[in-house]
């Protein structure tokens, strides 16, 4: 029999633990994403459709939009329902406050947007918050007694009316400031001469000054009975030419 051969055994060196953190493999961990609040998420979603929105003032979790049919004298569903937001908008060019109502539609991509232009045309009834624009709109608010939605319709109507009053006051103040600024600008413009134009009074006043200076200096040199001969060019013509040049070349 062939002699038994001893099996070779591999010898492994046990790694020694290290006290240095730099010996451990470094792993790159991505920075955690910032946590966004519900309001920030809602605002981001609204601004994708309406960039003028700057903040959310009031939220209704479920509302339905109706329009009033003049032909049939009844309310009809407009096909828009979902979360309703009352939002602050970018101020007007004159600096007046602006607010609007936005309803993101759960049924289609057709959302509802309407700017609040003032208290006129806003009314609260037993069923709807009525807002008059290009059509007569009715906002039906989910309002269940003995729940967190109790009183939501009244609260929403009060918020819309409050902001409508602020819009009216802000518009009036902005218009007054614009009128005041316009009057002040007109006064400044009227006080600034155009092209340094000289009046006839100023022209003849300068001519009289030149004549008086000539008579004081040169009247002793003039011959008796002989009209004084002025060696200088006509001063009045010079003044008119200078005024014309200043008018054509202002500044």
How is this structure best described in words?
By secondary structure, the protein is α+β, with helices and mostly antiparallel strands. The chain folds into two domains: 146 residues, Pleckstrin-homology domain (PH domain)/Phosphotyrosine-binding domain (PTB) (PH-domain like, Roll); 44 residues, no CATH class. The protein contains four helices and seven strands. It has a seven-stranded antiparallel sheet with strand order 4-3-2-1-7-6-5. Strand 2 and strand 3 form a beta hairpin. Helix 3 packs antiparallel against helix 4. The longest helix is centred in the last third of the chain and has 40 residues. About 3% of the residues have low confidence.
Give the gist of this structure.
By secondary structure, the chain is α+β, with helices and mostly antiparallel strands.
